Give the backbone structure.
Amino acid sequence: MGLSHCRVRGLLMLRLQKLTKTYKTGDQALKAIDLEVPKGQVLALIGPSGAGKSTMIRCINRLVEPTSGAVMLDDTDLTKLGPGALRRARREMGMIFQEYALVERLTVMENVLSGRLGYVGFWRSFLRRYPQSDVDEAFRLLDRVGLLHMADKRADELSGGQRQRVGICRALIQNPKLLLVDEPTASLDPKTSRQIMRLITELCRERGLAAIINIHDVALAQMFVPRIVGLRFGEIVFDGVPVALTPEKLTEIYGEEDWEATIEAVDDDEDVEAAQ
Amino acid sequence: MPVLEKDGAQIWRRHTLREKLVRWFGWLLGLLVFAICWQIISESTTWFFVWDAPRIANDIWTRATPPRWEYITQLGRPIWDTLNIATLGTIIALFLAVPVAFLAARNTTPSALFIRPVALLIIVSTRSINSLIWALLLIAIIGPGVFAGVIAIAIRSIGFCAKLLYEAIEEIDHTQVEAITATGASRWQVMAYGIVPQILPAFAGIAVFRWDINIRESTVLGLVGAGGIGLQLSSSLNVLAWPQVSLILLVILAAVVISEWVSAKVRGAII
């Protein structure tokens, strides 16, 4: 489904097949989700709270174990991997979190370098003796997001927007194929939210990265992301380009509400062109 | 329901009538128990000794003052032993408490069914027995002296440190652990990056807190022959050398005040 209107065409990189997650409590968070993400495509996952957005991206890198179904990353079924192979597969998937999830008491540099943990041995990481190439890359990334001067600061001294930038660097230094982004802007003010969304989508384009971005803010998703998938009660109820997201479709995803204002806000914005 | 309706107006009260009665009865019962206990204690008290107490206390006070200052030359070594017992005991306890805490914490234990209960048992059993009793046992096993004192303090402290530490481990922010796991880090790396930085302040606080307590506890270990200043205290008490006793108490007070000050400084610096 959905591939016909993807803007970026290319090789398939991620495919979810009948992905299902049922929690112990009996809640069915995902009901046989089928989704295909081509190489280099950024897609936004929207839907009400509890629709299964977070569960879905956590099932991809198995922070949450799926109950059944397959997650194909290129040609590997991630759900079948043993612990060692899973760790190697996780290196290919960078993750960005809602509350940044930085290790608060470590410095910015340590946080960025922690993205390389899957590549270095325990003692090297424990003693903070990362390969020089990793350190170089960390400095390059911090420079790219404008935080080079903060490298030595402790993570808890940073503002929300700055922390999220560090989170982005940590995900990118993994040199991933795919970014899993969980509500990157939910804890940020509107201006910073836009900057962060712009940064993530720009970086994806620069590096040809595919990304799945969970996002509450429909207008923000429409502004920056070429493909939107709507989730409701663990099922995909919409998959298409931003302009196809009409008030009727939003009602289908979120329930009855006046959606005109949400959509107009996007049309007025020049960011739409910038993103496309 | 505390919300009642009366003459068409809604009235809100903190307790319903029933709750009020229950509370009133509870208080009555409490007072009754207190009165009965008072009577039992009073019956088994030899009041003559109690009425006599101020005179005796005054008598001891006059005998104990002034302290015998020249005795201090013999107290340097014992107080040094006491400090060493406390410090070494605390260090050994911390080394043993860290693995126990990780095995006991719900979110890090390898098996909640088998290993966690064992870890909890270690915590409870070491904590529940006073260090004086540990010392008595250890003296029987390894003979009297400072070493028995060190081990007694260490064993007694394992449970305390492990309990506070495993509670700190259970309260960490889980998303930081998730984030480190998502990078493909190994189990040990997740521990070193996701968990350890979060519990480090708690660990430092527990360490100095326990060291502070152990200085107090190690002052009495000598009473049973496990080294330190308590030995001088007990021999002075036995020969009724009250001026020496008062000096020893002053020295202990000084040591405790200093340890208090050090631990406050350390805690302030780390947290």
Remarks:
- Chain A is about 35% helix and 20% strand.
- The longest strand of chain A covers residues 12-22.
- Residues 1-9, 268-276 of chain A have pLDDT under 50 and may be disordered.
